[in-house]
Amino acid sequence: LIHKKKSIDFEVIKTKISLKSLFENEFLITNVNASTKSIEIKNVILFIQSLNRSTELFILEKFVKKGYLITDINFNFDDNGNIKNDYKISGFVKDTKINIFKKYKMDNLEFIFELNKENLKLQDLKIFFNKLKFSSNDLNIKKVNKDFEISGSISNDDLTLENENIDLLIKPYFPNINIQKIIFNSKNNFFFKINEKFKLRDFEIKSQINLSNFLILNNFKLKNFFPKINESINLINQKVEVDYKKNVLKVKGSGNLKMQDNKDKINYLLTKKDNIYNFDTSLEINNNPINIDFLGYQKSDGNDSIIRLKGYKKNNKQLTFDLISLNEKNNKIEIKDL
């Protein structure tokens, strides 16, 4: 099938021809139903664009590097031979590679899709994103005016982030924390827009994360307070909620913390807006020591202590504490506006 020098090979093509139009020398074909063999995705995208430049597949033509699909196509024609807007395209994509903005790479992508004038819907999606495996049962691409709106959900089983992926995905949001390793699984809902110049905006994401291991190099000067502090701080079995919308990042979580010999418990709320970090953290110290030498304080063995830290930090500026408090049985220490 050839259109404007773009061609595509089919396994089956079916059509209906009006006998009346045949005898009256009018346009003959009213619709086309077709099924392809396994063909290269780029050829399909270019062919469909030759029919309709406004199709939602325009964005994929720039990103797709390789891949194959099997598809079913249904076109209806008006009396003048023009394709109507009620076309439907569905099929299966496999072994696909996509590069987005050079640093984001998608490999071994496969999914089932349905395309019409208004929407591109993907289901049963499996993908390796920067060598990390994710899956999704719901992803939609919709063209609104000159933008493409992309929304859906994506999840992953236990993944390990190290080195390159930490620098790419995590460090831009937490540049001053030396993260060594992250092991997690998650469920995520997201939304963003891309215009025809490939500028991304209005990014939103809500995530529920089970954090098995979050290992941070200890470059905090805390040994005077926690005498048995380790070289690394480890967040273990954390339940974390992440909400990012309109350039505001909110992270809420709780779980175990191991920074001395034994595990402690931690709860935290962190927000970031306009390069200002606000934090509210409570730490329950059980079978670990605490010393505050300048106050002559040392935690008694067997007693639990709760430390609370609340304040904010402006980018590249000093830390401001609205409140630092410690409660242990009959002992209570509070420092405000430090």
Helices and strands in order:
Layout lengths: L1 E2 L2 E2 L2 E8 L1 H5 L5 E8 L2 E2 H11 L6 H6 E13 L11 E13 L3 E12 L3 E11 L2 E13 L2 E15 L1 H7 L9 E17 L4 E18 L14 E14 L2 E11 L4 E11 L2 E10 L5 E2 L4 E2 L6 E10 L4 E10 L2 E6 L2
Antiparallel strand pairs: 1-2, 3-4, 4-6, 5-6, 6-7, 7-8, 8-9, 9-10, 10-11, 11-12, 12-13, 13-14, 14-15, 15-16, 16-17, 17-20, 18-19, 20-21, 21-22
Overview of this structure, please?
The protein is built from four helices and 22 strands. The protein is mainly beta. The strands form three sheets. The protein has an 18-stranded antiparallel beta sheet that branches. Strands 1-2 form a two-stranded antiparallel sheet. The model has no long low-confidence stretch (mean pLDDT 86).
**Beginning-to-end CA distance, first to last residue:** 74 Å
Summarize the biggest pleated sheet: 18 strands, antiparallel
Helix share, percent: under 10%
Number of strands: 22
Summarize model confidence as the mean pLDDT.
Answer: 86
Order of helices and strands: EEEHEEHHEEEEEEHEEEEEEEEEEE
What's a quick, concise take on this entry?
By secondary structure, this protein is mainly beta.
Which keywords apply here?
single chain; 338 residues; mainly beta; two-stranded antiparallel ribbon; 4 helices; 9% helix
